Structure formats: structure tokens, C-alpha cells
DNA sequence: GCGATATGACTACATCTGTAGTCTGAACGC
DNA sequence: GCGTTCAGACTACAGATGTAGTCATATCGC
């Protein structure tokens, strides 16, 4: 939740460390969750045009993610191959829960009400949610 | 909305300004959404013990929120009475959507899948969501 | 083998956020 | 009226984040 806010106390994925992954860092993680390992240059190819970043920016973000324990490095000649150390689903789960806790006191129904009101639910979403609800009731 | 991260571009509630409300600032807004107008001292009474903050901290957060356009001030003698300029529901809606956009590509069903997996859905939530689904299908 | 180069290491700086201290003066209370 | 006090205004500082530049060097390629 984007309230951005520095000194938070949640782990990137609940594993180790206590740092958060920032928006910019998350964009880098997304690239590597899609495909890894990759080099810094490869990551930049995928993200620099859309985000209007330059290579030094990506390198900084990668280094910070390594520092935070979110990425692993594997030497490959003069460069590193970067791989995620946290799973996307774990990260997404933690962040989702954190937002629900923060904005909705941990309750999912109010969140759903909000999304429904704002027409953020497609017919597909509805069908999928109904399917999930059926499974939950088993 | 959590990835904390400074220079974001979303408005507190889509009204004016381009600043985000941080976690700490949000705690202050919550107090004033519950009851306003209130003075800085009153806000501190409600939040300083639980957050282990002192009065200067609250005053800073209030001033920043005023600067961001999220709070209005009404002189009352030597002090101000603070009131929200943005509605909680608007803020919560924006933040929810932002997170769904960011983590789930704007789709709500995957979010529910995550919450369901993590047992974040109570029986009450499920019943409520079903009710909302029924209304949506009308 | 050697010059070129890519890339990590390191640095820079502005802004935001978290937390709090200091000071002044208008309001307050006696 | 006057001393006191409270609270806004202002300041401070550390850490996080966004964005990027510089440099040294090991690897690369010829």
C-alpha cells in the first residue's frame, strides 16, 4: 500500500529481512519472476523503455534487491545472473493481506464491496469468484 | 498500497494534488475520519499511545496532510480544528484499485484466490460476498 | 597478448517519510 | 493587565526511494 512509507516492518515475503520492496524495485522483480535468471542488461531491455529508466537505475535497483535478500546472484563471466529469492505468490499474498489489514481491518468482504462498486469486477471475475466460493464451501 | 515508495503519482483520492498518504499519515486520517473536527492534542490522545508517538510527530503529520490537501484547518482560538478533505471511502477505493492494478493487472479474481488460499475469508465474508454477487447479477 | 568494453562497485543528490526538538507569540487564565 | 502556556511554525536528521553518473577491472573478442 503504497503509502509509501519507509520504515515499515513487513518482510518482502515474510521470509527474512524486514525491508519492503518499493514500487520501482517491484517492477524489476516482475521481470525476473517472468523469466530468470537474467543479466542486468536483459532486465533493462525489458523495463527501461516502458519506465524511461537508464541502465544505472536498473543496476541500482538490482543491487538494492540483492541487499534486501530478494534476489540471488550467480556469476557469469564478468556479470551476474539475477534470480528471485522470494516467490511472486508469496510476495503478492503478503502485500494483499497487508492492504486488507490496513484498510479493511483484515476483512475481505468490504474490499469486495469497494471493488464491486467501482465496477472493477468483470463477468469473468464474478464467475471465477463464484467458483472459488464453491470450493471454499466444500 | 504499500510498496513504499516516495515519488508516486497517484492522488490521495483522485481529487487534487499528486501526493500519496503515507502509513503514518494514514493513521492520523483514520482518527479524523472517525471523528472530526479535532485538535492536534485530541488526535494525539487517540493515536500516540498505540503508535508510541509524541506530540511533535502528530503535529508534523497533521501539517503535512494539510500541505497535501488532505486536511482542512479551522481556527479555534490558538489552535486548529482538523477535518478531512477527502472521504475515507474514496481513499480506500483508490488504494484498493491501485494495489489490484499493480499486483493483479487490474483483475480482482486473482486477489480473491490469494485471500482464499491464505484463509483470509471468514464465513461471514463469504456470505457477504455471495450477497453482493447476487446483487451484481441483477 | 592486448586493447576494448561491459558491468559491478561506489557515489551523488533530490524527495519522501518517520520521528521529534525548539521557538515564538497569541490566546488563555487568573 | 500580565504572566503562563499551548500549539503552530520551523527545523533537524536518519533512512528509504527514485534516478542516474563515474570508475576500475576482469572478462571479452580479435
Automatic annotation (TrEMBL), chains A, B:
Family: Belongs to the BlaI transcriptional regulatory family.
One Pfam family per UniProt: Penicillinase_R
Keywords: DNA-binding, Transcription, Transcription regulation
GO molecular function: DNA binding
Name used for this protein in its record: CopY family transcriptional repressor
UniProt keyword Transcription regulation, yes or no: yes
Lineage: Bacteria, Pseudomonadati, Pseudomonadota, Alphaproteobacteria, Sphingomonadales
GO biological process, one term: negative regulation of DNA-templated transcription
Amino acid at each position: 500500500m503504497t503509502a509509501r512509507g519507509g520504515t515499515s516492518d513487513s518482510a518482502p515475503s515474510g521470509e527474512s529481512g524486514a525491508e519492503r520492496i518499493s514500487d520501482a524495485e517491484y517492477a524489476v522483480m516482475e521481470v525476473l519472476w517472468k523469466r530468470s535468471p537474467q543479466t542486468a542488461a536483459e532486465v533493462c531491455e525489458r523495463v527501461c523503455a516502458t519506465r524511461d529508466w537508464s541502465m544505472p537505475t536498473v543496476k541500482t535497483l538490482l543491487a538494492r534487491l540483492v541487499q534486501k535478500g530478494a534476489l540471488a546472484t550467480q556469476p557469469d563471466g564478468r556479470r551476474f545472473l539475477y534470480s528471485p529469492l522470494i516467490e511472486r505468490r508469496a510476495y503478492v499474498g503478503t502485500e494483499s493481506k497487508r492492504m486488507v489489514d490496513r484498510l479493511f481491518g483484515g476483512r475481505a468482504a468490504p474490499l469486495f464491496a469497494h471493488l464491486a462498486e467501482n465496477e472493477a469486477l468483470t463477468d469473468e471475475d464474478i464467475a471465477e469468484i463464484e467458483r472459488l466460493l464453491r470450493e471454499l464451501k466444500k
